[in-house]
Amino acid sequence: xxxxAASFSQLTGYSPMRWQQRLFDxxxxxxxxxxxxxxxxxxxxxxxxxxxxxxxxxxxxxxIRLPRRLVYVVDRRxxxxxxxxxxxxxxxxxxxxxxHSPAAQIKDQLSKLSIEPGDKASPLAISTxxxxxxxxxxxxxxxxxxxxxxxxxDMIGSRLLFSGYGVARRxxxxxxxxxxxxxxxxxxxxxxxxxxxxxxxxxxxxxxxxGALYPFRVLELSAxxxxxxxxxxxxxxxxxxxxxVVRQRLFAVKRLRIEGLDGSKxxxxxRTIDLALRYQEKHVRVLVYVRRPDDARTIAERLAKxxxxxxxxxxxxxxxxxxxxxxxxxxxxxxFRANPKRLPPEATEYVVATSAGEVGIDLDADHLVCxxxxxxxxxxxxxxxNRLGIGRDAEVSVVEWPTNMYDxxxxxxxxxxxxxxxxxxxxxxxxxxxxxxxxxxxxxAFSVVPRTVELTDILLDNWALTRVKDLPGRPLPDRWLxxxxxxxxxxxxxxxxxxxxxxxxxxVASNRGNGLRVIKQLxxxxxxxxxxxxxxxxxxxxxxxxxxxERKESESKEPVQAILLPVSGDPMFGGLAEILNRxxxxxxxxxxxxxxxxxxxxxGMLAGQARYEPMRTPPYDTADDLNVNAEEENRRxxxxxxxTEGEGWNARVLGNAIxxxxxxRDQLADNVNIAIAARKIRDHFGLAExxxxxxxxxxxxxEEGDPLKxxxxxxxxxxxxxxxxxxxxxxxxxxLHEHLNWTAEEAEKIVVRVGLKAKWPAIAEAIVIAARWHxxxxxxxxxxxxxxxRDMARPLAKSGKRGFDVTSxxxxxxxxGSLREATEDGAIWNHPERDLILHLIAAHHGWARPxxxxxxxxxxVTDEQNAEIIAETMRRYSRLxxxxxxxxxxxxxSLMRAADYSATERLSENGxxxxxxxxxxxx
Length: 923
Prior knowledge:
alpha/beta; Rossmann fold; 4 domains; 8-stranded mixed beta sheet; 7-stranded parallel beta sheet; 36 helices; 27 strands; 14% strand
């Protein structure tokens, strides 16, 4: 049998604590607690490892009771990345595990769950839904394979509510089904996002009422949990606390002193800096926390002047993503990570942070200086100092700032009272984790919780109608994810810098009315990534941008040109001052500036007075930074091609130090044809045009309509688009009969692996039957002509790389034709799961939620017959959703769709093998 202790040690490098063994014992029996209530510093994220080993043990025992997908949600970007790194390390250890080792045992057991067991399958899918660690879709490819999906509240929550941010409408039920069934959702640092936690409990209760096949499970983690209604809370026992390593951390020495202050904000800043500089000659690591980013920047700059710029790091939520990512990996910041073997620094080092560095992040300072904040924030801050409790006495100096600097002075006063109730040793209070636990019930000192909104069946019904684009009464899900603030919140506003902004004014002016369409297409296909932008409250960002606009206009006598990318609707191009006056469009929007506008300081924060310096560090345009030493799938480039009339092309790479070599420049200069020039560039860089036939965005034309200025977008080369990207994509053509057989075979594997065939054989059979029928509507002559097939005796399911000519069959949907044929089949009509079979056929590209359009109808029958099929499609959808529930029906659809995608991917594998054979076995 798999040993938990040996497995945990190999996967983490540490022996398990007693509480981790107890949690494992609960997991292998399928008993998942509602809440994990542990002090900070005791390794709550190890619940990922506990789940993984417990799932493998259940496979070994032949009784799987744990969900096979773990979704890890935390509302801090840095912590999302840390959790992703943990998951990646786990998979790396599993892949490289020596034979007969504990990790190899786990790998062998987990592999049994995949559609393709054995060496062919990775034992664990890992996907991150955040920024440039974009979704690699591993979790979608095989619904039976164990998976770890990591994301933020918005990315996961919107998908659960059938409204996935950035997800095509046809794919939203696919995401909702896979996340909402057979899933354990770990809600880390749950106190940060209590409205989301209440939403999750509503989903659990709704699924209980709906009798879900594979119920959604939730486990909340927090060191500052204030929920009192959890009936099943997992906490430390007295025996757990007696364990040496736990005792060290619970009683880690943290001596706290509250520094009273009568003075101004500047006096408070000066006092905070003076307290931090007390350690200047002591070769220690010091954390400084304040609430406001501007104050953090001031303190960091003054500390740097007093010590050295290389000894001070600044971490705020308003720093641009690139600088924040670099900071987290910098030697100074890494020195603050918890490590019992770390050495003292050569000179004292400082990290100055706001709340962005409070929660979940792996920081372990020797001493702490901070302003007085609310109690939950103070508990988190104290968890970032002397975390391991080994041989250190940490000093915590808490400075009272002027009362008018606090948003909730009453709660701040209550926090001071709570901290003052701690046991006192001389001039210092004992603030070790075990003492702080006694303050957990003083919730009047905690941050204000946004008001939550009830989740109702009517809302779920509306959100689940994913094929209806605009539906009255369907709100965006943000209120259910974030709650409603007592005061009107100041929404965020984002800022980024791109070189092409300077080139787009002529595009808007001269591109025959299509300028804004070109801009929209550009940012759809080459989007602003998290590393490119900074954010802050709209009022603060607007104030700095107003300063920038006024400065630039006074210097150049011309307005700063900018682009506004609102959260919905078309982009706006114009003067920055004009854009900033559109207050109704600024909420959570992105303002894109040309680098020449300036505005970025040396630490990656917005500063209206900062001027542009072309050779400065950090650079302004970082859109394509990942080209250097990046993984293949992250590579992308923007090439600006320009020419004068009658001459060839010049090219330069935007926002990147990569040069166009002399040989390629000469070739471009000899070519007037833009298609030839573009191909030569694409071949040189080994990248594909990531807009297919529309990869060339014409920014300016001559009087004859020929292009003079073109932006070419290149992305990572992929031989074949995935079936999720394009359901018609395939590397070669395929007979319809073969594709249907393959899809049925994949469906059979899936229903066996997920346990449907053993528990609900009729439902499992329905999925396989639907798979065998799903594409029969492609046999229509009109559809075959649309994909270029003229041999009607050999209908194709896939056309290979040929395009689809919609003029041949109009808006006809092949799944509608498949549905119409299936309704006339006697075996299906008499099947106990007839409704499910027909719905799965109809919905395998996201339609039938709830209907088709009339012009989608089967070309082989009359409009009246098609209208009746459409009406029955809606009635059937309603019946099935009442029976299986919102997420249950979506999950069954996802199994059928996954089988279709898997069958299409087999074409890619076979095609690759054929190429290898043609090349004599060479890869």
